[in-house]
Amino acid sequence: MRWPAIFFLTLLLALQYPLWLGKGGWQDVHEAEARLEALRAENRELEKRNAELASEVKDLKSGYEAMEERARLELNLVKPGEIFVQIPDAPANNRY
User: Fold this and answer.
1) How many domains does the chain have?
2) Domain contains 34
């Protein structure tokens, strides 16, 4: 009676091995879920960036205010008759 119990216990352990330690087992599933969550987080960031870029494209296509703002900030352009004044930032180590 003892040998069949040992045989079935060994058979049960042999069948459980691939589930826990084999390819496609518990560890692989856990690692795949972690990679999936990282990819989802990256996709959320990229979707947010794409929405911002789409909004900017829409502004550039529809109005001149966005183009004027970009020209002023990036190219330091001014309108005729305007005076450009630039105020430097205060140094971080200077306390007043």
Assistant:
1) 1
2) yes
Q: Would you say residue 92 lies in a domain?
A: no
Mapping DSSP onto H, E and C, the string for the chain reads CHHHHHHHHHHHHHHHHHHHCCCCCHHHHHHHHHHHHHHHHHHHHHHHHHHHHHHHHHHHHHCHHHHHHHHHHHHCCCCCCCCCCCCCCCCCCCCC
Dihedral sign, Cα of residue 22, residue 24, residue 26, residue 29: positive
Amino acid 62: pLDDT = 82
Please report, to the nearest 10 degrees, the dihedral formed by the alpha carbons of residues 50, 53, 57, 62 taken in order: 100
pLDDT tens, position by position, 33-73: 999 999 999 999 999 999 999 988 887 788 777 778 778 77
Instruction: Give the domain range for residue 54.
Output: 15-73
Structure tokens at 21: 């330690």
